[in-house]
Amino acid sequence: VSGLPEAVKPDDLPEGTKEGLNDWKRTGYGGPCPPIGRHRYFHKLYALDVVLPDLGRPTKGELEKAMEGHILSKAELVGTYQRSR
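Structure tokens predicted for YbhB/YbcL family Raf kinase inhibitor-like protein (85 residues):
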């Protein structure tokens, strides 16, 4: 991927796109849904020197292990969300 297009629909991902499991053990993004209080959300983007093999639906740990030694650069966005009730 060489860019991030605007307004991509959830079912309109580029060919070859793979998704891992989220905290709910499903694929996809569910948005913030914290208990009451302030919470941080981490979004990470990696540039790799290889195309990873098909890992099925990897966990975070499995994906990080597959990327070991292949990370050229990474970016991280940390967002906060607070639910009052």
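The CA atoms of residues 60 and 76 lie 15 Å apart.
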